[in-house]
């Protein structure tokens, strides 16, 4: 008696399903990971083995204070936000895997048990079919190409976000250093005026000074202290910004390297030089190109999917008369209404959107770079102006101090000159910090690791000796 292949296939299919099932493992949420601090020993090792399209490996040593470049690398290695971004790699890899998987054959089985007045020799009818859809074979190559290009775009996009975080951490370190220098200036002025007010009150009691002079000293002292407290608040806020970028708890404070210099003038390369090869250096632009290539493959897959679904297979039936009727089976859709024209239109529109987005990003980047060069020139002039004004203000302070001792000037004029000198130094540090801001932004916009455009001067100025009149 012929043997049907359907029960055999059913047994094989059941065994395959049971053996191929993936187990479930729970991953409960926990806030413990948010409280972890970076292991500096591991960071030092990882920094020397660093692999990134732009950032370079370096000898990481935070024991002498964290430099801005070390802050950039530490942020890339320890920033919690980047961990979530890197998880996209696993998702993209899964999409590549899924795109290459062929569909499972489809198995159907039926059984018909005769009831009632059944003629002699009637048997139970059963049968089944095994079918396989050929449509996925037609567009499989295009789907795999799209997934692989999308995975490459994800890698580049992650590297671009790492680059942005690195530059933000470097910038935050420079800003914190600058604010500390400014706080030192403001504190020195406030301390001097505090001591001065104490001595003037004693002089008032002895009848040497007038109440008007004491009032002027107290007003200057209050203004200086208010300014000092404001800068100290900015220092604490900037420390929190840096800690967040470095993946540190809010109450942490890694010492910063104190030998860092701020630029007095920048002489960047020309616009033409910076734009040369821009589209191959900017990781986001390269990622957009890979995304466009992925969409091209997706359009191709959509066009291939307009062909009718073709399903082939075999069937085997035992009828009521105990006859076995095996044979091939083929089915196809009639492309009368649905020829995948809707999906084709969507994918083509998406491709056009990516094309226009890339064009706009290139256009905007070129204009941003040109604007940054103009800003650098303006800041160069501002730094030069404030530095030229410093010796004039210093001379005025000395002159008014001597005139005050001889009774030829008022204390109000002297305090105004002293405050203006400190304000000049703080403003000069602000302009120098803005030069660093602009330079780091220019590196980010052009995709260069470091633009050698700095003509440095010591960030910490010589200590000014304020004499009590």
Automatic annotation (TrEMBL):
InterPro entries: MdtP/NodT-like (IPR010131), OMP_efflux (IPR003423). Gene3D superfamilies: Outer membrane efflux proteins (OEP). SUPFAM superfamilies: Outer membrane efflux proteins (OEP). It comes from the Bacteria. It holds the Pfam family OEP. Belongs to the outer membrane factor (OMF) (TC 1.B.17) family. PANTHER family: OUTER MEMBRANE CATION EFFLUX PROTEIN, OUTER MEMBRANE EFFLUX PROTEIN. This is Outer membrane efflux protein. It comes from Nitrospira defluvii.
């Amino acid at each position: 008696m012929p043997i049907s292949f359907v029960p055999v296939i059913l047994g094989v299919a059941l065994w395959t399903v049971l053996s191929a099932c993936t187990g479930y493992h729970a991953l409960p949420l926990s806030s413990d990971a948010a409280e972890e601090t970076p292991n500096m020993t591991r960071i030092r090792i990882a920094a020397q083995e660093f692999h990134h399209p732009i950032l370079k490996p370096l000898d990481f040593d935070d024991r002498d204070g964290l430099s801005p470049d070390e802050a950039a690398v530490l942020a890339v290695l320890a920033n919690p936000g980047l961990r979530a971004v890197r998880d996209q790699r696993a998702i993209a890899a899964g999409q590549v895997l899924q795109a290459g998987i062929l569909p499972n054959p489809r198995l159907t089985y039926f059984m018909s048990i005769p009831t009632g007045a059944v003629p002699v020799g009637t048997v139970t009818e059963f049968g089944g079919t095994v079918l396989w859809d050929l449509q996925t074979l037609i567009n499989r190559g295009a789907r795999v190409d799209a997934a692989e290009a999308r995975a490459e775009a994800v890698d580049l996009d992650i590297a671009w976000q790492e680059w942005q975080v690195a530059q933000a951490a470097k910038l935050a370190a420079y800003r914190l250093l600058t604010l500390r220098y400014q706080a030192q200036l403001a504190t020195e002025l406030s301390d001097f005026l505090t001591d001065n007010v104490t001595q003037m009150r004693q002089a008032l009691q002895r009848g040497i000074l007038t109440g008007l002079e004491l009032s002027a000293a107290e007003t200057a002292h209050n203004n200086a202290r208010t300014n000092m407290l404001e800068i100290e608040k900015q220092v604490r806020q900037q420390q929190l910004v840096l800690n967040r970028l470095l993946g540190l708890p809010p109450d942490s404070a890694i010492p910063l390297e104190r030998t860092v210099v701020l630029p007095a003038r920048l002489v960047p390369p020309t616009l033409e030089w910076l734009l040369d090869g821009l589209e191959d250096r900017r990781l986001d632009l390269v990622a957009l190109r890979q995304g466009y290539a992925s969409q091209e493959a997706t359009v191709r897959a959509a066009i291939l999917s307009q062909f009718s679904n073709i399903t082939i297979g075999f069937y085997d039936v035992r009828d009521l008369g105990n006859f076995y009727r095996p044979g091939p089976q083929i089915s196809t859709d009639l492309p009368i209404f649905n020829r995948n024209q809707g999906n084709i239109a969507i994918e083509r529109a998406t491709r056009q959107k990516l094309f226009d987005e890339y064009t706009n990003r290139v256009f905007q980047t070129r204009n941003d770079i040109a604007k940054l060069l103009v800003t650098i020139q303006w800041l160069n002039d501002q730094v030069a102006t404030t530095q030229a004004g410093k010796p004039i203000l210093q001379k005025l302070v000395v002159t008014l101090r001597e005139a005050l001792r001889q009774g030829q000037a008022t204390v109000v004029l002297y305090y105004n000159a002293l405050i203006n000198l400190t304000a000049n130094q703080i403003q000069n540090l602000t302009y120098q910090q803005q030069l660093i801001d602009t330079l780091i932004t220019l590196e980010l916009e052009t995709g260069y690791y470091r633009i050698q455009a700095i003509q440095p001067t010591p960030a910490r100025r010589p200590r000014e000796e304020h004499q009590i009149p």
